[in-house]
Write a structure and sequence with these properties.
Elements lengths: L1 H10 L10 H23 L12 H13 L5
């Protein structure tokens, strides 16, 4: 009886590890990098010398984030 239990354990198939091809990751990595750069721009530079939007609402919305990331704003 003990031999049949050992044989059953050996017969159980193990799932193969998943592999994700690099070509599937690259578009998401580029998207994340562009999104990160846009966020850094809005937190660090918007409402300054290179302002794209008028008003101060972007500055007020990202004010605490600027100080948290070390960007001086005033």
């Amino acid at each position: 009886m003990a031999q049949s239990a050992v044989a059953e354990e050996r017969a159980v198939p193990r799932p193969a590890p998943l592999s994700i091809p690099v070509r599937d990751i690259v578009p998401w990595a580029v998207f994340a990098a562009v999104l990160g750069l846009v966020l850094i721009y809005f937190v660090g530079a918007e409402q300054g010398a290179t302002s794209l939007l008028s008003g101060t609402w972007v500055h007020e919305f990202t004010h605490d984030g600027r100080h948290l990331l070390g960007f001086p704003c005033h």
